[in-house]
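Entry:
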Amino acid sequence: MATHEPVLYAVCDGEKARFLRYDGGQLRTVSKFDVHSKGTNAEAEVGSVKEPKSDPHVQLKQHFAHDVAGQINEAFQKDTVLAGLVLTAPGHVLHEIRTHLTKAVAAKVIVAEDKDLTNTPDHDILGHFDRPATGWRLPTA
């Protein structure tokens, strides 16, 4: 897969996340995980000791958003070619993810939209963005 655009697309909801890259023709999923995936801490962190009146499902989604942010931070740390981030998630999840991005990664956010595209197939996802034909204008350092 030849990647022509140094942008990571993160498509998330409170339980699933997909990371995609543009290959010159369409977006393609490069990795995905969910709240039950090995490697996320969301389920382990929602224990039996809960704050009064806390909802374990809400806690799980908050921890998952933290895990998603960690995965995004790690992707940018490992792949120095990445220069931009397009992030979509429902509003409350979007806020949680953005809260846990490093400053360096947060500065690379091109677009953050309140959308749930997790069940949208790869070949249809690009149409949900107002991406210019010439590509995104990447943030400058």
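The longest helix spans residues 56-78.
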